[in-house]
Amino acid sequence: MAAQSAPGTASRGLDAVHAAIARYYTATLRAHGATPNGVDWANRPTQELRFVQLLKICDFTAPFSLDDLGCGYGALLGYLAWRHPGTQVNYLGVDLSAEMIAAARRRWRSRRNAAFTVGHASPRRADYSVASGIFNVRMDVPAARWRRFVAATLDAMHAGSRHGFAVNFIAPLPRGATGSAGLYRTPPGTWRRYCEQRLGARVEVVKGYGLREYTLLVRRN
Ligand SMILES: C[S@@+](CC[C@H](N)C(=O)[O-])C[C@H]1O[C@@H](n2cnc3c(N)ncnc32)[C@H](O)[C@@H]1O
User: Fold this and answer.
1) CATH match of 15-220 with 3.20.20.210
2) Residue identifier of the C-alpha nearest atom 27 of ligand 1
3) pTM of the model
């Protein structure tokens, strides 16, 4: 795993991984448009079920800034307006796919307090950061390099979040079961320990919400 380091430096050598991710999701967007399928989700209810878990990191009793890493077409903005209309959220969506960001900007062009940028890390420090689904599709990237990508991304999210961040992962299959190749499945302990020991954070594991996934809520000590 990569050592904890300043944002940007830990991601050195990951350009090919970032480029492969951008190509993959640009293709899903071209095939399905700015829809849940267009960001490789099965449907909107499960997309939003993930938002429910991730947003547990935020305190909705006061205004806050939020970075959405791997924002896709910005579906989280619609969810925030629907479920949390009373809280002012200054939102920044970041995505590796330039076409995804162009779609997000078109969709939310009249939205105040929202901006989008292309990249693999946020250019600012926000109160909170979330990332939904960005570690799931490993494609044919070697496992060790993918773990380096995950570590570098967690380092950057931690550095860029004043209070905390939240991410989700796919849980391992039961023994003997077979699933789609190219997905990254990992037990909660690996990255929980990383965030506790390397980032010095407090970690809560949220699971049992009806998907074979879990969410890590990572709070600054
Ligand atoms: C599964 S989609 C989810 C989109 C959105 N979070 C949602 O739930 O609707 C993952 C998105 O993250 C982007 N992505 C993956 N890894 C990323 C990274 N390290 N930095 C920025 N964007 C990333 C992809 O381009 C893709 O648009």
Assistant:
1) no
2) 72
3) 0.95
Ligand 1 pocket list (CB less than 6 A): 21-22, 25, 39-40, 47, 69-72, 75, 94-97, 100, 120, 132-134, 153
Instruction: Give the integer Cα–Cα distance in Å for 97 and 102.
Output: 9
Q: How far is the CA of 205 from the centre of ligand 1 (A)?
A: 21
pLDDT for the residue 158: 98
Which atom of ligand 1 lies nearest, measured to the CA of 39? 2
Q: 95 CA distance to ligand 1 centroid (A)?
A: 6
- 86-109 pLDDT, tens digit each: 999 999 999 999 999 999 999 999
Nearest Cα to 147, choosing from 164, 135, 134?
Answer: 135
Question: What gap in Å lies between CA 192 and CA 217, rounded to an integer?
Answer: 9
Domain boundaries, the chain: 15-220
